[in-house]
């Protein structure tokens, strides 16, 4: 018994934590009408499931942020392509668009995020 107590103390588990676990086991045994050993295993399984769900929620949050970033990047590119198509529909050729871009750059206007291929 003493080595087990020493192991528990070395893990930093105090009497308050042990009492909390005992109460949890007793409540699980009563709620599910289980013997104490089965209730203990059920409590451990529930803790594992909770930790797994919490990890999945964190990963889902990270994936939502990555999706938002990709959506923003794709939206900007999509708007750029639509604007280029509009310019072409107005009769501007690719050379004309590049010449217009060069004209603006030479007169102090810089298109942010866009570069000329010439």
Question: Could you explain how this protein is built, in words?
Answer:
By secondary structure, the chain is mainly alpha-helical. The chain has one domain. The chain contains four helices and no strands. Helix 2 crosses helix 3. The mean pLDDT is 85.
**What order do the helices and strands follow?**
HHHH
The portion of residues forming beta strands comes to under 5%
What is the alpha-carbon Rg in Å? 32 Å
Q: Return the domain count.
A: 1
Helix-strand blueprint:
Elements: H1 2-10, H2 15-32, H3 36-89, H4 94-106
Helix pairs in contact: 2-3
Question: Tags for this entry?
Answer:
mainly alpha; 0% strand; 4 helices
Nutshell version of this structure?
The chain is mainly alpha-helical and 118 residues long. Helices cover 80% and strands 0% of the residues. The protein has helices at 2-10, 15-32, 36-89, 94-106.
